[in-house]
Every structure is written in structure tokens, then in C-alpha cells.
Amino acid sequence: MRCNKSDKQPHNPCLAFVLTVLNKIYTMISNIIS
Fold first, then answer.
1. CA dihedral defined by 18, 20, 23, 25, rounded to 10 degrees?
2. Which end of the chain has a smaller Cβ tally under 10 Å, C or N?
3. Which residues make Cβ contacts (< 8 Å) with residue 4, sequence separation at least 6?
4. E strand or H helix at 14
């Protein structure tokens, strides 16, 4: 996936990728704590 700042689409693949990674990390941390 490329982060294209000139892309004016409402759905930003780069942002979606970052959110997916953060979600996976959050899930891993939650599993470790519990």
C-alpha cells in the first residue's frame, strides 16, 4: 500500500493500514494482560 497524500478519496488505504496494525497490537496487548 502506498501513502498518497494527493489522493482525495474518503477511504485512505494508508490510514486504514495503520488502524489495522494498531488494532492488532491492541488485541495482542489485551490478550497478554488477560
1. -70
2. C
3. 14
4. helix 13-33
